Amino acid sequence: MFFERHGGGERAILVHLDGQDPEAREDPQEFQELAISAGADTVAFVVVPRHRPSAKYLIGSGKVEELRDQVKAEKVDIVIFNHILTPSQERNLERVFECRVLDRTGLILDIFAQRARTHEGKLQVELAQLDHMSTRLVRGWTHLERQGGGIGMRGPGETQLETDRRLLRVRVKQIKSRLEKVRSQRDQARRGRQRADIPSVSLVGYTNAGKSTLFNAVTDSNVFAADQLFATLDPTLRRLELNDFGPIVLADTVGFIRHLPHKLVEAFRATLEESSNSDLLLHVIDSHEPERLAQIEQVMAVLGEIGADGLPILEVYNKLDLLEGVEPQIQRDADGKPQRVWLSARDGRGLDLLKQAVAELLGDDLFVGTLRLPQRFARLRAQFFKLGAVQSEEHDDEGGSLLAVRLPRVEFNRLVSREGMQPLEFIEQHTLQ
Q1: What number is the average pLDDT over the span 40-55?
Q2: Considering the domain 366-430 in this protein, what is its CATH number?
């Protein structure tokens, strides 16, 4: 729309406030990675000790003057703050610096705008941008604000501003209507998978934890994966066959981040619902990251916002290749259920353990037994073989088949119900576990 972005390489000064409140404190290294992901050319990283933010500038007026001189000396294009700025603070700082000022939310929105590839992703980003910029429109029309009198000092400034706000509201309404159709289409596809009794598994985790690399390794796909924040924005779904279980649908989703803007959570709700409606979540964790405990907390917080915190979760500790003395393994809880898997998506070590753990968690309710199928049920026999559920086969004196099968009970019930028969009619031996 009217949010133009430069192609990258803008000279930027990064400003980070170092306060004492651990909840409000941001990670300076993550901030620099965000700026790099957005394409900024960082000329200075300024840390400002500030325990009581200023209402006018967020930082003190003395520091503002220092930054102004640095902006002019370095010919800086943009100053980026690692914190949320109010619209008035942005305007005040821009007036002093005489260049663009961006806060953390605006920076993340810009990265999302660069990463969006599908029509749905672009709509979601634009909705979040419009919502964020709606209170900042006055900045774009300062040349039309005629407060003085005299020739050339009168004009339709406020009328033009109101016109632009009206156009913005119309555009927001259009985008929300389109996204509602997208949500309806996703619901329809999801119901189709549920009718087919195909479980869905979603990869979730902090941004740059290696979700897309793991997704590609497990499904043999070529989803874009890079060592940068928010490399994946648009969700991707693939069908995956698990031994001793059957087919599942695996979804790669957008990564989370500390203090993920609520505007993004709301705009991407249709996408994030792919996770909230899953049968199992694979929480991918960067095992080499020193701040992984804090990242885990942030992921769980976002899952709580979208109503997915109550779903079964399997922790996947990735990037084992960066650790020494740690082998691929499955760690189990007191009941023997898989709780976390240690693996390396890059070199493939531990992928078989991940598939085993997923099959175990999804296959809690397995049918394991021997079926006697008369010849008239040849089609049902073929379906069992097609799913890879047959462990062995023998034949009786009447030409019928004795099949030792192992598959999810819902899948078993679905197959035999198609033949118009009750499952127990076929069972000779029930549950061999």
Answers
A1: 86
A2: 3.30.70
